[in-house]
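Let's practice the habit of predicting before peeking. Look at the sequence and jot down your guess about where helices and strands might fall. Then scroll down.
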Amino acid sequence: MPMESVPMRLAAIVLLLGLVPPVAAEDALWKRLGSEPNLVVLMRHTQPAGGDPVAWDRTGHCAGESMLTPEGKAHAARIGKAFAGHGVAPVVVSSPMCRCRDTASLAFGGVPEMDADLREVATADPEQLARFERTAQSMIVAHRGRTPLVLVSHRPNIDRLTMELVESGDLLVARATDKGELELLGKITVP
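Done guessing? Here is the structure:
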């Protein structure tokens, strides 16, 4: 065997070994979602475009709001299939902003439970941040039990609850305390 192929094979083995743990970790999280109580999935909406990211049309007609792209819609559908494929049928609560509401509807069907205080938080507004946190923790407490809760939200909101930055469609899995505080267990990425 030529010497140059040994380093390439070693590099390939190291790369493959590096890929196995995240897949195994994600499989373990899916199993936990199907069996453990008091779990919450914090999900960032899928890919949006256009509009004003902080605009919210209270009428529900989405005027001026950032909307899901075709890729974002397809990603939401894949996320829903992943939940169904793992036998996980969650309770879904969403921000009322169209990109979250549409992500939740495309992934899980129907119209999710929503609350105005769950809309995207402007990080410069401490009063709105506090309202969001109180509302989210209250909903998390109210939905503790055998069925996991999926909270479809926005990056700054998820960051506020977990101190984790997430990409579009990322799923952070956490255990909820009786006060609505979260213990992060890991992340699932549905491509």
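How did you do? The chain has a mean pLDDT of 87.
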